[in-house]
Structure formats: structure tokens, C-alpha cells
Design a protein that fits this description.
single chain, 309 residues, alpha/beta, nine-stranded mixed beta sheet
Length: 309
């Protein structure tokens, strides 16, 4: 099983009623839950770990997880509310306003970290859950403690406006990066984290800090994998976003990469350290294919395995 550790929330996506009044429609979302759901739909045993609520929105989230074959048995349940993210689209790109104070997600404590079942072979971390608070401390502790016995992957999905203490956040990311096998960043995340410069130079600099594989996504320009022995680029086909959006695209990419490695029996720390260029290219290409299907439709709606060629 791959255990996905991070936020589940409700994306309140802007739309219109029949009489053209503005309205928001609740969609199940959250970067890490999207990855968990995508993995489940791709046929990979998938688990999810976060603080969940007892409210009506959490009922929707739990049903969404179950429908995609994702286990949430390890999640602590509380009376705190579910995180809401109001989403408006501008030229197909999502803009967010978060309501996340004292929520079930944010109230997760290090003491809530469960004993990990033996079936877990890899753990994925990321998203706004790493930005601040007790839940960020919990996920950091969980990644570092589990890194010796599990493949770890992280996509911080950096949102600068969400960060309360930049110095503390940067220090947390550096500690987590040092214990991470696979690090995925968008080109914007890379620049925020490492400053301006050539992508290859910045990515290779991060390789020296601990990760064995760095994945950099560049929107319509595709994605590149950086390993100590090579780099490999996978282009993408330009997509028409006029009737769709990019919500969940990066999360689905992460799931596709992990699913490819899982299916090839390569989810071990030794296998990632010695990953061949062909296997890395196959994993990135599978991630891109999966993400392209998510982008082709509204919201974070990852594909099922039978939908991929």
C-alpha cells in the first residue's frame, strides 16, 4: 500500500445558477487526497492519513475516498470542521481562498501518528498540510521516522500566501527533503525554494541534499526527471483549457509516477537510488498521461486505469 499523508478538503468551485447568479459547487479535493484517489483508481492499494471531521463535508470526502478504493482507517476523526477552499478559474488556472482555521486537518497532532501496518511500502506527503501548525510537525515527524523503511515522496505544492513563517517553513522543507527519496516540484516551486537559475542546475543542487530522484513539472512544456546518472524529459501535448481546468493535474501526475513504479516492483529505496533512465522515463510518461486526462475534464477527477492507453 501507498499511504498518502496530507490534506482532504472541499473545493467550492465557482459557477452560475440557471438564472446566472454566482454559486459555488462543493467538490472533494485537497492535493494529497487527490493523489490518494488517483492511485486507487489506477489500481494501486492506496491509503489516506489526515485529520477528518464528523461534519457533512467530511461525509462527502469519506464517500469519495471509498468510491475510489482508498482506505482511511488510520485517520483520526474529530468534531472540528472540514477545510474549505473557494476556487475561481482564470483562463483555466485555479485561484484559491482557504478557510482553514481550527479545522480537523490543521488540528492533527504528532500524537495522532499511527503505528504503520507492514503492508505500507511507500509514503507520499505534501500540500498545504506542511505550511504551518501541529499537522505540519506531525507530517515531518512521520516522514523522517518512516524514511528508513519506506520509499518517501514529497510534493510541497508551495503556496506562498498560505505560509505564516517563511523561515520555519523553509527549514521544515529542508529537513524533509533530506529524508525524501522522490521530490516533485513545479518550476515555480523550484524557483521559490532555490532561487532563479537554470532548472537543471537547481535540480542537480537539490539532488546533493538527499533525494534520489527529482521531478520538475513545467506545465505545457512537460516534465523532467533528474537522477545522479541522467536527466530525461517527457513533453506533453498542448491541451485546450477553454472547457476544462488544471485542478488536480499535478496530484494525478504524482499518482501516475508512483503507480508506474509500483507496477514495475520498483518501490524500494534501493530501486529508486539505482533507477534506470528507461524506468524513470516510463514513470514520468505515465504520470503525464494520467494528468492529461484529469486536465481534460472539470475539477480534480483523476482517471481510472482502464481510461489510460
Amino acid at each position: 500500500m501507498i499511504l498518502n499523508c496530507g490534506e482532504a478538503l472541499i473545493d467550492m468551485v465557482a459557477g452560475e445558477t440557471n438564472d446566472r447568479q454566482m454559486a459555488f459547487v462543493p467538490h472533494s479535493g485537497g492535493a494529497v487526497m487527490n493523489t490518494a484517489v488517483a492511485l486507487g483508481r489506477l489500481g494501486v492499494p492506496s491509503g489516506f492519513f489526515a485529520g477528518l471531521s464528523n461534519d457533512l463535508f467530511a461525509t462527502q470526502l469519506k464517500a469519495h475516498l471509498s468510491a475510489s478504493d482508498v482506505s482511511y482507517d488510520l485517520c483520526p476523526i474529530s468534531d472540528a470542521p472540514t477545510t474549505l477552499a473557494f476556487v475561481q478559474l482564470e483562463n483555466g488556472q485555479a485561484k484559491y481562498a482557504f478557510f482553514d482555521e481550527s479545522t480537523a486537518l490543521r488540528n492533527l497532532q504528532p500524537s495522532d501518528i499511527p503505528a504503520l501496518p507492514d503492508a505500507i511500502e511507500a509514503m507520499f506527503f505534501g500540500g498545504i498540510s506542511l505550511a504551518y501548525g501541529a499537522c505540519a510537525d506531525a507530517y515531518e515527524a512521520m516522514l523522517i521516522a518512516g524514511a528508513n523503511d519506506h520509499v518517501t515522496m514529497m510534493d510541497p505544492n508551495i503556496r506562498p500566501s498560505f505560509i505564516r513563517d517563511e523561515a520555519a517553513f523553509r527549514a521544515r522543507l529542508q529537513r524533509m527533503i533530506a529524508a525524501t527519496d522522490i521530490l516533485k516540484l513545479s518550476d515555480e516551486d523550484l524557483e521559490w525554494l532555490e532561487g532563479t537559475g537554470e532548472i537543471a542546475d537547481l535540480a542537480n543542487g537539490l539532488l546533493s541534499k538527499g533525494p534520489k530522484l527529482i521531478l520538475i513539472t513545467q506545465g505545457s512544456q512537460g516534465a523532467t526527471a533528474f537522477h545522479k546518472d541522467y536527466k530525461v524529459h517527457v513533453p506533453t501535448v498542448p491541451l485546450d483549457l477553454s472547457n476544462s481546468d488544471t485542478i488536480g493535474a499535478g496530484d494525478t501526475f504524482n499518482a501516475g509516477v508512483l503507480a508506474s513504479l509500483h507496477d514495475a516492483d520498483l518501490l524500494s529505496t534501493a530501486s529508486i537510488a539505482d533507477l534506470s533512465q528507461q524506468d524513470a522515463e516510463s514513470a514520468v510518461a505515465y504520470g503525464m498521461k494520467a494528468a492529461s486526462i484529469t486536465v481534460s475534464r472539470k475539477g480534480a477527477n483523476p482517471p481510472w486505469k482502464h481510461e489510460l492507453p
